[in-house]
Amino acid sequence: MELKLKTISSASIGAAIAKAERYRYLNEPEEAESICRDVLAVDPLNQMAQRILGLSITDQFSGGAKDRFNEAAAIFNALEEEYARSYYTGILHERHAKAQLRAERPAQAIAAELEEAMRHFENAERLRGRANDEAILRWNRCARLLETIPRPQSMEENVFESEEIPPHPSHNATAARVGRHH
Fold first, then answer.
1. Alpha-carbon span 137 to 147, nearest angstrom
2. What is d(CA 80, CA 145) in angstroms, rounded to the nearest whole number?
3. Distance (Å, rounded) from C-alpha 78 to C-alpha 168?
4. Does 45 lie in the same domain as 77?
5. According to the 3-state scheme, what is the secondary structure of 94-139?
6. Among candidates 60, 4, 13, 64, which has minimal Cα distance to 35?
7. How far, in Å, CA of 88 to CA of 79, rounded?
8. Nearest-5° angle of CA 34, CA 40, CA 44?
9. What digits encode the pLDDT tens for the residues 67-106?
10. How many Cβ atoms sit within 10 Å of the Cβ of residue 55?
């Protein structure tokens, strides 16, 4: 039996969005997601519903292959305002990195996601309105998190570690003298 979803009234959109936000605060992103989909069925361009929907999807990230990264990216890329597209895409990458960190994924992948988030936050910072430092706050959090991730050494540093560096000639003389006295 196929169930046909019921449609909410246009007059209830504000209350539905408020309810979706509460469900996110209660850590019930699936409930928030469902409500946002109901709102978007009535008002497909509702920016607040799109933002909450995208955030609800990122709330469900586990760091695994089933994360709906591309779906959330498409939602955030469809936002009308350039600032919002940059800011929420930064959040997308930040949350993806944090989920990968919890799932103990490779440090390089986590670092790359955080760096991508920071690029989007820098763009949002350039586009921001007066007294809006949210992109700066997010950038700083990513920077602090990035500092805690063990980074692989560069190829140049690895070359020096793998090569044997011959001892200084004076060390040979010292070793020979020590060897004679023992």
1. 16
2. 30
3. 63
4. no
5. HHHHHHHHHCCCCHHHHHHHHHHHHHHHHHHHHHCCCCCCHHHHHH
6. 13
7. 9
8. 160
9. 999 999 999 999 999 999 999 999 999 999 999 999 999 9
10. 23
Q: What is the pLDDT of residues 15-61, one digit of tens each?
A: 999 999 999 999 999 999 999 999 999 999 999 999 999 999 999 99
Phi, psi of 151 (to 5 degrees): -105, 140
Domain assignment of residue 130, given as a range: 73-151
How is residue 70 written in tokens? Answer: 């591309």
Decide if 67 contacts 31 (C-beta within 8 A): no
Tokens, residue 101: 């960190």
* Residue 65: DSSP 8-state: T
**In the block, which residue shows the tokens 């800011």?**
87
In this structure, the number of other CB atoms found within 10 A of the CB of residue 137 comes to 10
Measured CA to CA, the distance from residue 122 to residue 126 in angstroms comes to 6
DSSP string, 7-61: PPPGGGHHHHHHHHHHHHHTT-HHHHHHHHHHHHHH-TT-HHHHHHHHHHHHHT-
Structure tokens at 27: 């850590």
- In this structure, are 47 and 78 located in the same domain? no
Whether 147 and 79 share a structural domain = yes
Indicate whether 86 and 120 sit together in one domain: yes
